[in-house]
Amino acid sequence: MSGMLYGGDEIGALVFDPGHHSLRVGYAQEDTPKAEIPAVVGVAPDDTPKIEPEVKAEDGNVSSTAPAWKYYIDTTFLHTPRPSMELHSYMKDGMIENWDLFEKMVDYSYDKIIQSESQYHPILFSECPWNLRQKREKLTEIMFEKYKVPAFFLVKNAALAAFANGRATALVIDSGATHTSAVPVLDGYVITNAVVKSPLGGDYLILKAREMLEHIGIDLTPAALIASKEVVRDKDKPKYTKKKLPFQPTNSWMAYMIKRTVQDFQQSVIQVSESPFDERIAAGFPTVQHEFPTGYRQDFGPERFKLAEVLFDHAMLGAGHIAATSAGMCDVDIRPALYSSVVLTGGNSLVQGFSDRLSRDLSSRTPGSLRLKMIAANGTVERRFGAWVGGSILASIGTFQQMWMSMQEYQEAGKAQIDRKCP
Amino acid sequence: MASGIPISDESYNAYERVKNRNLRGAILKIENNEIVVEELFDNSSSSESTWENLCSRLKSKECRYILYDFEFTVASSKRSKVSLALWAPDTASVKDKMLSASSAEALKNKFGLSVVTQVNCPSALGYSEIVQEVGKRSS
């Protein structure tokens, strides 16, 4: 490994893009992340019998029966019901909240996805534009102290999305799982005091969809709990047999699985109407049929437009409004540049009709003389993994290597150095 | 946040020449991890016609930097401004766009210019439109 650090293309840098929905992990230079791990960790008490050595504990306080925990990460482990397994999310408000669980995710990534030791690979992390200084420093500390990475860098995901679309100045609209945000980027730097956030994201949409489905009385039993089902006619009561489990699955697990079921419904059925919701116009659109894991099938018509409307019609938090507010908070001289480069990214923006509606809402709010141009990549990869792909390319640029914060710099200057190296 | 790609001396010389009215403009590109000169344009013909010529040399799938001395009249006074533009068509590859966009800042600083105009589609290449952008964001 001598002289490997700032060599040419055999760097083997890694790119981690943590989000609320999932953690994207992979190698730099590649087109897509190696893995997209759901951002929840299953925690269950570890009750495997331990083989104790014959030594007796002298101190009465030491307990040899202290509960140990087992952690379950990634889809295959999460979707199987286990006794007493509670699901926790380690993200909050776009930032990492629970560091212990996050470390488990990183351990899993190195172990199973990258399949290599952390000390051999420089690593690039993406962060949200409003990330707190304390959290950045904590992440730096963990990566250097625990994982002993040779080099580290932090980039704002909005800047990555702008660059990946060939722009150094853009208004990045990121619609993700927990929130939708409008972030102006000027010459590669995020204008932090003009960032506008709204909690209306994919999760809110799923919540509303779930309420509606339960209100209609649709059974949302997840696929993992169904042993077998029969084919039934449209709108007929479903006939299925539930799996017999010797235990009751935890509430958090049930909630997560039902959320996945509703998410499936959301992704295939929900559509945003081009103009503000009107019952009659919506009724004119063809209906879409959806089959639930229980075997129940139904057509959905105007409801699917009505549901999506929540993302746009809110006066203060609608997507069009926050975009206009954010641009309004910037200097009047750069607004034309921002409006002519509106970049749409984020998994939730893939809802059908989202980009057209946002384009329309924004143009009605743009001052007359300004030209509006929205860039919305067509593929799912570019929108869901936009920040990851940007990070992958950046980390693979040969000359970029000299901008990383190295282990040596960390040892000399400490974790505060990150603020100077990664503005 | 820059990418660290170095700018060749040749590119800097081209900038000096454009500044001193020796040349009208130049097309720069990233090659072998360096920003080099692709083509130079002299000032034998008018500002507008040389611009048309320059635009015809731009490829629709590759990103470039355009260094140009724009001549325009504003409030009936003739003005001239050297400006840098980033040509990053939406049809170019993500890697190309990423590299060019992240290196634009360094290039701008090296040349001591205040703004980089972004041009992302052929329709935005009209001379009068660009001149308007350049004129507005000048300081």
Please provide the count of β strands of chain B: 5
Order of helices and strands of chain B: HEEHEEHEH
Gyration radius over CA of chain B? 14 Å
Q: What is the count of helical runs of chain A?
A: 15
Architecture of chain B, according to CATH? 3-Layer(aba) Sandwich
The percent range for helix content of chain A is 25-40%
Number of strands of chain A: 21
Task: Give the distance, in angstroms, between the N- and C-terminal Cα atoms of chain B.
Answer: 23 Å
Strand content of chain A: 15-25%
Structure description:
The complex is a heterodimer of chains A (423) and B (139). Chain A is of the alpha+beta class and 423 residues long. In chain A, 34% of the residues lie in helices and 21% in strands. Chain A has 15 helices and 21 strands. In chain A, the strands form 6 sheets. Chain A has a 6-stranded mixed sheet, sandwiched between helices. In chain A, strands 11, 12, 13, 14, 19 and 20 form a 6-stranded mixed sheet that branches. A 3-stranded antiparallel sheet of chain A has the order 5-4-6. In chain A, strand 9 (123-127), helix 3 and strand 10 form a beta-alpha-beta unit. Chain B has 139 residues and is an alpha+beta fold. Chain B has a 5-stranded mixed sheet with strand order 2-1-3-4-5, with helices on both faces. The A-B interface holds A 155, 159, 162-169, 187-189, 333, 336-337, 340-341, 373, 375, 382, 389-390, 393-394, 397-403, 422-423 and B 1-6, 33, 63, 86, 88-90, 92, 94-102, 104-105, 108, 116, 118, 120, 133, 136-137.
Structure summary:
The complex is a heterodimer of chains A (423) and B (139). Chain A is an alpha+beta fold.
